[in-house]
Design a protein that fits this description.
A: 338 residues; alpha+beta; eight-stranded antiparallel sheet; 10 strands; 45% helix; B: 171 residues; mainly alpha; 7 helices; 8% strand; elongated; binds zinc ion
Chain lengths: 338, 171
């Protein structure tokens, strides 16, 4: 069930994961927002059936109807990036998830079908190829909404064409510490890419993890989107590596001190809030990448990032927890992993 | 400022209408604006509002009480004016009904109006041939420019053949 969290992909010291999502719809059927329960149910069945035989390089799928899942289970899927918060609210929806959690299909989210593949490290091309294989398998069993001029037709005009959103989760601590992050973010948005970060109070960036994705879906072929995003990501990786080198050259002791302090808190704290956890996790990830901290697999850091979220913590404890109880459970979980 | 239409409620919607080069300012209360179907009045600003903004800011005229606007999709019942408010399609049929009027929107959002990516295998045959012909036409032009007449002649023959086969297929 680890999926991308395994953390064994190329460039996985800076790129957490690569994702490709394809939006597809069934021809001449109202989009999910106005689709009645009966026809929504038959979409779920058609999609599940189409993946029953498995897909080359992916394996088998299991279908989960949202109506059969409790709130907590739905939220856990959201926290593991397997479904979106929007799908979690759709009782007529379903999540068809591969055994290894790398591939999933959201049924009756905003579009009838959202194919999604998430791989560890920088593997946008591979993620696109796998998603496309799933697309081919599914297409045999239904008639897609497609137009010669405009490509795949979607509920929102921002997805029409390829219906493809490719993205990477990228960890950029050194660019942030050296005060260069805003320049990078600005440059990226000027070339047709979107960037999202986790921000706390005000404009503070938390955890230094950003998601970069393509914005344009019409008039660019999938390969172009892949090439473009991969190229830009490689450039940002280059900048981050340069910033790390400069940091070590000029402020080695300060950086080591920061990392060891964060390690000390992570390993010993009895109460840990989620934002603090993400902040410290970023330092530790940097420490591992720089070789300052040793023998900590990336997979453990990814697990801490995902499993310390609210719903995952509660599922693990087998009961609902208050915010204060979660902070204690979070600290316990982290100590057990490190 | 009172509403131009009912004269009772305060005007909250302000629109500049351009007709025959003459500008008129119109001020409406939210109720009258809603009745006239002028604007989306949702309070929380979203990507949909943004899209709706793009749709109704077409250079032509902000309020165009054009009957075409109320084109209705036969499959899902969505009207064009409603689409302009929400920025969401109701089904794939909407695209066909609203037709070429969507291109300015696509141009604004994507900078393009034509799909160049994947083709479903089912729909594929014909579109793939058309794209191939398009590509060969460009090569032909290039060949003529470069004065490679032999290459040009053979390209022209192949294009002719493919066009003929294509037309035969359609029948
Ligand atoms: Zn009024
Ligand atoms: Zn429709």
């Amino acid at each position: 069930m680890k999926g991308w969290m395994e953390g064994n992909g190329p460039q996985s010291n800076i790129i957490l994961s690569s994702r490709t999502r394809l939006a597809r719809n069934i021809n001449e059927l109202p989009f999910p927002d106005t689709l009645d329960a009966e026809r929504a149910g038959s979409v779920v069945k058609t999609v599940s059936d189409s993946l029953e035989g498995g897909v080359p390089d992916i394996g088998r799928f299991e279908s989960h109807r949202l109506q059969d899942l409790g709130q907590l289970e739905r939220q856990v899927l959201v926290e593991r990036h397997l479904i979106s918060p929007k799908l979690a609210k759709q009782n007529n929806g379903a999540a068809v998830i591969s055994d290894d959690s790398i591939a999933s299909v959201m049924v009756n989210e905003e579009d009838h079908i959202r194919i999604q593949v998430i791989l560890p490290g920088l593997q946008i091309r591979k993620a696109w190829e796998l998603a496309s294989n799933m697309d081919d398998a599914m297409e045999q069993r239904m008639e897609y909404a497609y137009d010669e001029r405009w490509g795949y037709l979607t509920c929102c005009p921002t997805n029409v064409g390829t219906g493809m959103r490719a993205s990477v989760m990228i960890h950029l601590p050194a660019l942030n510490i050296t005060g260069n992050i805003n320049k990078i973010l600005q440059a990226v948005t000027q070339i047709g890419l979107t960037i999202r970060g986790l921000y706390g109070e005000g404009t503070d960036i938390i955890g230094n993890v950003f998601q970069i994705s393509n914005q344009i879906t019409l008039g660019r072929a999938e390969e172009e989107i892949v090439e473009n995003l991969t190229g830009v990501t490689m450039q940002i990786i280059g900048k981050e590596k340069e910033a790390r080198r400069i940091l070590l050259e000029n402020n080695r002791v300060q950086i080591e001190d920061r990392i060891w302090r964060s390690w000390g808190i992570m390993k010993n704290a009895r109460i840990m809030q989620s934002q603090e956890c993400l902040k410290l996790l970023s330092d530790i990830r940097l420490g591992v990448d720089l070789g300052i901290l040793e023998d900590i697999p990336v997979s453990v850091l990814n697990e801490i990032m995902i499993d310390t979220q609210s719903a995952s913590l509660q599922k693990r404890s087998g009961k609902e927890l208050t915010a204060a109880e979660r902070d204690i459970a979070r600290a316990e979980l982290i100590r057990s992993k490190l | 400022m009172q509403c131009d239409e009912c004269g009772k409620k305060p005007a909250t919607v302000h629109i500049t209408k351009v007709e025959n080069g003459k500008k008129t300012d119109i001020h409406l209360c939210d109720q009258c604006a809603m009745q006239k179907n002028v604007l989306s009045l949702s309070t929380n600003f979203s990507i949909n509002d943004l899209l709706a903004g793009i749709l109704s800011s077409g250079a032509a005229s902000p309020i165009k009480l054009d009957p075409i606007q109320d084109t209705k999709c036969a499959v899902c019942g969505l009207t064009y004016s409603r689409f302009k408010e929400t920025g969401r399609f109701g089904c794939s049929g909407c695209y066909m009904v609203f037709g070429e009027r969507l291109n300015p929107l696509f141009k604004r959002v994507h900078g393009n109006t034509a799909h160049t990516g994947k083709i479903p295998n089912k729909a594929g045959g014909r579109i793939k041939v058309m794209r191939e012909i398009e590509k060969m036409k460009q090569e032909l032009e290039q060949a003529i420019k470069n004065e490679e007449y032999e290459k040009a002649a053979s390209l022209r023959d192949r294009i002719r053949e493919m066009c003929k086969a294509e037309k035969g297929d359609v029948k």
